[in-house]
Design brief:
Radius of gyration of chain A: 18 Å
Order of helices and strands of chain A: HHHHEEHHH
CATH architecture of one domain in chain A: Orthogonal Bundle
CATH topology of one domain in chain A: Arc Repressor Mutant, subunit A
Largest sheet of chain A: 2 strands, antiparallel
Oligomer: homodimer
Structural class of chain A: mainly alpha
CATH superfamily of one domain in chain A: Winged helix-like DNA-binding domain superfamily/Winged helix DNA-binding domain
Strand order of the largest sheet of chain A: 1-2
Distance between the termini of chain A: 40 Å
Number of helices of chain A: 7
Helix content of chain A: 40-55%
Chain lengths: 174, 174
Amino acid sequence: MVEGVTTRDPAGLPAPPASPSTLGWSLGVLLREWSDRVEKVSRDLPHGVRGYQVLAAVVHDAPPTQASLAARLGIDRTVMTYLLDKFVECGLVERRQDPVDRRARRIVPTGHGRGVLADLDAAVARAEDELLSGLAPEERRVLLALLEHAASGTAPDEDRCAAVAGTIGPPRHA
Amino acid sequence: MVEGVTTRDPAGLPAPPASPSTLGWSLGVLLREWSDRVEKVSRDLPHGVRGYQVLAAVVHDAPPTQASLAARLGIDRTVMTYLLDKFVECGLVERRQDPVDRRARRIVPTGHGRGVLADLDAAVARAEDELLSGLAPEERRVLLALLEHAASGTAPDEDRCAAVAGTIGPPRHA
DNA sequence: ACGAGATAATCTGCCGCACAGACTATATTG
DNA sequence: CAATATAGTCTGTGCGGCAGATTATCTCGT
């Protein structure tokens, strides 16, 4: 995932093994390829691909807390701390005290951060388009739809209520 | 390989962001989920998911050298060394001198290794099946086919976008 | 109101992994 | 035969994930 995508390999052999695990392998190859391309594009961001994902989450969501960000992106919360330190240092986002819960910090993007993300989003869109250049437009749409459907259908079955917590602060009852 | 996704996080929230990068995100979520499930299954192997992929590659391919294994899986060759050390120690594979090139070692699975992999393959197949439980059988086949097609069609295509990089830099002093 | 427990963020320390570099053994080429 | 290249190993460095402790704050039961 994302992660984990620190791998760097020059001789990328797209050799599909005769294994039953076509899923994991194809997923891995594609994600690695995606990461490589997005890495090239977001090289100026403090943390490359991860940085892009964090910034995107910050901009596109209602001002999230660090914890919700970390949970959503699958990043450890202790990592999120110094990752956001860099972002603040670079003037991409700001930390604000949540007036309701003074333990929490709301992460809001600066104007500069929004601008940077806009450029990145465009570049990433191009990169993804190029990545799927082997597929017909119709096939891409189907793939995207199925992928999204499959990804959203992965219920961790543990914390079902936690999904709600990640959003905005709780206008908790009165 | 799979890289990138070394992330491990209990509270995985399947919250799709309103970002243009649906591809990378869905890919990341799915691969992370896949890794988690396969991790549970291959917990007895020396290196978890990675170990499974290595063993699968060893068994399903013609006896590969360490270098070719590393290249295929996107693992560093220095890592491959001690990873295979463990495998040999556990009696899963053997290192044999290549009679043609005495620098190289051919990695061949032991009978035990084959047996272990057979069990793992079955378990992984079940895990993948469960992972895609949200999709109809027809949809799964299509997804798998498109995925494989997209993964095999990834051309390296190096120098193209290097020029775009310099434009979006935030004040990165560090 | 008070104390017990939970939660957000931070800080510290450990460990695994990627990566660069050196080294040995062998192969290839001039 | 010398020079160079390659397979594998070993060593050291740095980053990132992760567990644990700490501080500040919230929540709940009494």
